[in-house]
Amino acid sequence: MVFTLFLLLFLLLKTNCSTFQDCESECIFEPVKLISTNIGSFPKCAKVCSFLKIDHSSNLTHEQLTEAFKNLETLVGGLEIVNATFTDVKFLNSLTRIEANTSPVRISNNEKMIELGMVNLTTVITYNFAVSGNKEMTVLNLPKLQIVDCQLSPCKPVISMWNNNQNFCMTTEEMKVFLLNNRIEQFYVNSKVCEPAGDNMKTCKMPEVGCEELVGNLEIGPNFDTKTVNSLKIIYGSLLVRNSTLDDLSCLGNLTHIAQFGGNGTKANSPLLDYKLLVPVVKIQKDMKSIKMANLKRIVTSVWNAVNIRDENDWELENGNETCAANQYALFQKTPQNAPRSFDGLSC
Ligand SMILES: *[C@@H]1O[C@H](CO)[C@@H](O)[C@H](O)[C@H]1NC(C)=O
Ligand SMILES: *[C@@H]1O[C@H](CO)[C@@H](O)[C@H](O)[C@H]1NC(C)=O
Ligand SMILES: *[C@@H]1O[C@H](CO)[C@@H](O)[C@H](O)[C@H]1NC(C)=O
Ligand SMILES: *[C@@H]1O[C@H](CO)[C@@H](O)[C@H](O)[C@H]1NC(C)=O
Ligand SMILES: *[C@@H]1O[C@H](CO)[C@@H](O)[C@H](O)[C@H]1NC(C)=O
Ligand SMILES: *[C@@H]1O[C@H](CO)[C@@H](O)[C@H](O)[C@H]1NC(C)=O
Ligand SMILES: *[C@@H]1O[C@H](CO)[C@@H](O)[C@H](O)[C@H]1NC(C)=O
């Protein structure tokens, strides 16, 4: 009873301040949707409080929006751009920070949108960051993005980058914003990794001495030159070990992350998927003495059955005997951070 009262009081206070305590009254924009008849009253402040929503019926041009948002640096509230006809979101060019504590930041189902292009955006505070269903979108173009996180504790932001153009890719810099944040556990992401840009010696497409980030699968087969992976830290792709004569994976002692979002249209985390149809994120032949990787922290993926240590035939034989945890600990020397919830078809 007392607890309920407190809860009510808490909710009341929370909605009263309605996130908008952060803004001067002239910097608050109340309407639920931005439309041609109210855009004139959009505040000219650097920091605006608003649950900003723009859609098909907003009847606004890119020019009108550019003018309305030209001073906007911080948006407190939320942002939804759905079912609109713009080719990008460059009208929010000056925006550096979105604080949407209790709301999603969603840019979805915009038929003609080819990129976001919010080139000054560094920070997105939200529990759900979704860029999905934009059929023409091939890149995010968020070159300064550093932080996607939520502030209310406990919180675990959900990332959805689903159903955009089939060539949609994220840069390694954009990927790292998500995969180096351990609070992000749920990825509904179907994305390639963009071709590494020009002259960055630390990023490579084939294993090379000195390379730290590999864009592509790492296949370790017979006669593999282990020196080429000694400094490798991140694989944006799968780790596949087949027909190798190595006893262990100590050559991957610097590897911390394996990230693979190359699902191919199949729904993330769907228990209905036949695991054999998907390229696993990790697949390792079974006869090695040890498959531990000394610094491995995370395997990040939206493929349901991420890790496949045994080969398929063995899986069928040994399925009943293995435990998921045993397979996890076979790979990780350190306590895994948000390891995949499925190993060899077993749920952890
Ligand atoms: C759209 O906005 C223009 C002015 O920008 C106005 O003339 C027109 O009537 C509006 N259309 C609708 C359907 O509201
Ligand atoms: C999206 O826009 C189309 C017109 O382009 C409209 O027919 C449809 O109802 C809109 N959908 C939503 C969910 O608003
Ligand atoms: C946003 O970025 C562009 C290009 O990097 C730059 O020219 C512009 O000054 C920036 N705007 C603000 C308000 O920071
Ligand atoms: C592994 O070896 C088997 C038989 O020795 C061979 O059939 C297969 O093609 C090899 N696979 C790879 C990836 O080297
Ligand atoms: C990790 O990288 C450092 C610096 O590149 C190197 O000295 C070290 O030998 C590497 N560790 C392994 C296990 O290869
Ligand atoms: C996508 O997955 C299906 C199985 O669901 C598979 O048959 C197909 O080859 C895959 N396509 C690509 C491009 O990987
Ligand atoms: C499978 O588990 C049973 C006990 O549940 C055990 O007796 C047997 O040795 C196990 N087989 C393998 C291959 O580990």
UniProtKB/TrEMBL annotation:
Name the domain of life: Eukaryota
Receptor L-domain domain boundaries: 44-138, 210-301
Answer whether the UniProt record assigns the keyword Transferase to this protein. Answer: no
Keywords recorded for this protein, A-Z: Signal
The answer to whether keyword Transmembrane helix applies is: no
The leader peptide range reads 1-17
The protein, known as: Receptor L-domain domain-containing protein
Origin organism is Caenorhabditis nigoni
Identify the gene encoding this protein. Answer: Cnig_chr_V.g17482
